[in-house]
Amino acid sequence: MTVTNWTDYFEHMLPEMTAELKHYAEFETPTSDKQSVDALGDYIAAQFEQLGCRVRKMEQPIYGNQLIIEYGTAEDSILCLGHFDTVKPVGTIEQQPLLEKDGKLYGPGVYDMKNGIVIAYFVLKTIIEQQLPLLHKLVFFWNTDEEVGSPSSREAIQDIAAQCQAVLVLEPSTEDGEINTSRKGGGEFYLKVLGRESHAGNEHQQGVNAIEELSRHIPTIQSWTDYEAGTTCSVGLITGGTASNVVPGTAEAVIDVRVSTQAERERITRLFQQLKPIHPEAKLELSGSIYTPPMERTERSAALFRWIQQLAAEEQLHLQERGSGGMSDGNYAAGSGTPVVDGLGAAGAGAHAVHEHILIHSLAERASLLLRLLASNLPGEPRS
Q1: Mean pLDDT over residues 273-289, rounded?
Q2: Predicted confidence (pLDDT) per residue in 7-27, tens digit
Q3: Domains contained in the chain, CATH given
Q4: Between the CA of residue 46 and those of 53, 57, 261, 325, 350, what are the distances in Å?
Q5: In what residue span(s) does the Peptidase M20 dimerisation domain sit (predicted)?
Q6: Residue 224 and residue 259: Cα distance in Å, rounded?
Q7: Which one, of 254, 194, 256, 252, lies nearest residue 224 by Cα?
Q8: What is the mean pLDDT of residues 248-253?
């Protein structure tokens, strides 16, 4: 069977793909519920094993077991990266049931990001059934703690990515179908001020007001924001004091930080470390970090995107690139130096929201694109 337009091919499979995505969504998988996450993981593992894949489970004591799935024996590898943990608790699907309406599929987890794994499964199934030649070994890493920053998986992601020629992140796309060639990195800093409590009426002068001390640092921290550099510092939460008639002895701020480059990551970290008390008797305690590195747009990732654009054009699909302020496991993969593109999953909107949905037809478009990409050369490789 010779196929010239894979989008048309997968459009005939949309009922099957949609039904499988619904089945995935019926497994509710909040990150903190290991048993529920592992139930879907076992199902995914069995599905890929039936295709002849080699499946290894990375056992985890707290989070769900991560899946490393391989197909093929080529020396060079392509990594497909995604996650099947979600943010909403078990029982959400009863209040937000799956719904098909106006060409969209609504439901918790269908957009972020179970559709990406479904797309990968049907693409691999088609590659096998159509006996398409593979120039690379295919590696699929399906994660289980992405929604909480990938604490148990980030090192494995970076290690596996370092062994591959490209990383394709199957996080969802915008409704316009844009592909991410960069993502901000980020983290949180915690600034605690230790002052001295005293009676606000009788011994006010003996106190060291921790809230006042903290408030004097906030404008400084906020001033480190540099929109042109893609850096934001946002004091998002402050706590302090015990009662209105007590000079507060402690106060604390939680600061969200996003950076677009490693240089900015280092600059902001250095500035936090250089903070000194303004009141001579106050003390500062700093913790936290920018723990997620930025996924920077490199020459190699830009070349990979241009190659994807060319492949999309063969399906009459027109792709644009974008940068995102949000983070994904693509950030950790990019830390390996391997070129990464992100947002190759279905188009849609509403991640974590009540209106979470995908555009059903985009399942076929993204499947056709992924198939062409997995069955092709990569930029810089000789055409077969």
Answers
A1: 98
A2: 999 999 999 999 999 999 999
A3: 6-183+295-374 (3.40.630.10), 185-292 (3.30.70.360)
A4: 9, 12, 40, 35, 30
A5: 182-274
A6: 11
A7: 256
A8: 98
